Amino acid sequence: MNATDVLLYAGVAFGLVALFVVVFLVIAPPPPKVPLERRRAPGAVHVSTITKVTDRTVHAIDTVMSKRGQPLFGAVELEEASIRLAPSSFVLMVVCASVVLGALGVLVGGFTLWSILLIPLFAALAPLGAKILLSVRTSSRRAKFGDQLDDTLTLLAGSLRAGHSLLRSIDAVSKEIDAPTSEELARVINESRIGRDLGDALASTAARMRSLDFEWVAQAIAINREVGGNLSDVFDQVGATIRERNQIRRQVKALSAEGRISALVLIALPIGVFAFLYFTQPGYFQGFFTHIIGVIALALAIVLLIVGAFWLSVVVKVKF
Known about the structure:
Blueprint: H1 3-27, H2 36-39, H3 49-67, H4 75-80, H5 87-109, H6 114-123, H7 125-147, H8 149-161, H9 166-176, H10 181-193, H11 198-209, H12 212-227, H13 231-255, H14 257-280, H15 286-290, H16 292-316
């Protein structure tokens, strides 16, 4: 085929494309499509099949969880972790993650006998990871609440000096400060509006956030309501004490940072080396999986790693 034939075929192709454009887009264009929202009857709500299946699954999980005395993931636990999901929806997400991880275990096992052992092992990582996620988020939320407490007391003292009542001051601060303090103070206001005592609501917040400093604030408010006095000055004094405690706490955290990082490195290093060698040199660990002594040694290494991780976490944790 010479250059003339190539040009001829290219010209015919371009001509056909031009003819298609003229006929189907200029002479007889397709009718305009009516949007899906306009084709539906007024007031009709379209529910997809996936949504229906999800709702039925969530309802089934709700039924099962209602029969259990203590669910795996409760509403209080999710609320403390600032996860705005129903417990049944969160459990559904964990179950889906377990299925995906179980399939990953089959792939890692190479469709061999080891896949049977890896499926439950990988599937168990989903609820374990969910528990760790909730614990980390809850601890972070509580720590942030404690860091915001001195600013909260400063705003409360200023609002009281401006002539507002205590309840009005708490309401104003809940709208000005960031989360999680704003969420907790808004909850205190809502509980007070439905009839709960303000002191009980504050004490419940201190217990929920596990904040000894906020417990002092709740006790100071309760004492002031009984004996009277200048509550703004009390907030200033308590705020100064909390600021000093936070300063010492941050100093202790900075001094113990090296130990905590060393603990993370010592825990992650053997796991990382094992994973790297397993995927790059699979035959290097063949004896650990084919001989009974190797399996025992591997199990013993896992147990020692868990004990060492717990030991290091206790050593580097400074109580204050």
